[in-house]
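User: Hello, can you help with two protein structures?

Assistant: Certainly.
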Amino acid sequence: MCILDDLYFPNGETKSRVLGGSGVYSILGARLFSRNESAKRLSWLIRAGNAFPREINDRLEGWDTDLIVEKGEGDEVECTRGELRYFRGENEGGGDVEFGSKTYKYITGPYRIEPRHLTLYPRLLHSSTYHFLTSPLDTLAQVPELLDLRYHSGIQTPPLVIWEPLPPTCKSSELENLMNAIAVVDIFSPNHIELAHFFGLDISNLIFSRCLIERPRQKDYETGNWKREERNSDHPLWSGGLLCLVSQTVKMGMD
């Protein structure tokens, strides 16, 4: 998605219509490594309305990617809008810290992109790679839906599917769905806090420890239900400024 967020900081400062959203940042990251004509291979769709800000549209067009802004959500709608509020917190010594907890809510939308939205733009069905920001259950529904749409469009080659879990759904009650969803994607890419939440752990306020990061990662291998046996799977685990842990499942075969 493309989201315009209103940010509220503990010191009273506010920022309005800050550009964000998983779709924006995944394209931006890919664009940094796509030079010249290869940038046009990066295709993405934004669901918006007729009030989508021209300055935002021009900024995104300036990235020289294959951008489609579908303005079908109404005359008064810009796009998905959000409100992010930061609150002060305390450190382990009881001292005040600038950023503690935060809350987030949608003001309008969310106008998510699902496989059915790609049918109006056949070239998007021919993409070699797809990035999903979805719940485990939505992943289990949408990945097969995408593959089915491609199959009925005569596309036989399977795409690379990257899945980033939707943060509010990263909780222990979703663990079984998580394991099933991992099995239908090629790359599962949470951050360390999201993965820990799936196993009922809250490590957001703990001092960083490699074993805290590696333990839930090892656990998902021990309990995972790997169905895509025909292909290897990569699983980068992002840890903010501490970079990432990359692990892999490899199909073992016999000659």
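That covers the first. Now for the second protein you mentioned:
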Amino acid sequence: MSSSADQSPMDESSTTPTNEEEYFEDQPPVEEKKPKSKPKPLKNKWRFWHEKVTTGDAWKSLEHLSDLCEFGTIQEFWSCFNNLPDLSHLKVKESFHLMKNLNEPTDVTTKVQHLKIAPAWEDPYNVNGGEWVFRIPKEVSDTVWRELVLAVIGEQYHSVLQPGDEICGLSVSQRPTDNVFKIWNKVVGTEEDQKKIYSRTIEILSEQIKNISDSIQTPYYKKHKE
């Protein structure tokens, strides 16, 4: 009869896990760390604004405008945009604006202005331009707002703009039965120049919304300075 002393170390190790084996069995799986993506810069910096309802000449002080956030990269944009409330949260006649920030001072701006273009006709950068104005049903307004914001910051109007012109901003304003959209450009140009901007808008929205031409109501172009 063999004693316990006769049992070989090999037999014992085959049935009893080592301390190292026990350690690895008790540990959760290690997750592979993904490298952080590098910021992807946009061609221009932009800023979101909120506009409250104003009465009389209160608009002249611009106190009804709230500076929400600035962004210059794709990552910063989504951080800003995803924190904006849905359009349904706007009160009647309140607005959201997306306006370009200037990269450097020009003949009509100074560093004191922090290179912000205010969503106002009277802003020196906007005074010689105009805007396309149209109404959109509420049920597709959030989609229109998102697609036009992406188009503007992605410079998707560049191919149809005359030399010296640019898209300065985009606005949406709450109304009782629909929403009013405005696309701001820097230079009025000719009637043909204006039509190209509107046609490009239809092309952009048609990619996501069927029969968008039927949804756009009362479109017209308005000059900021007559």
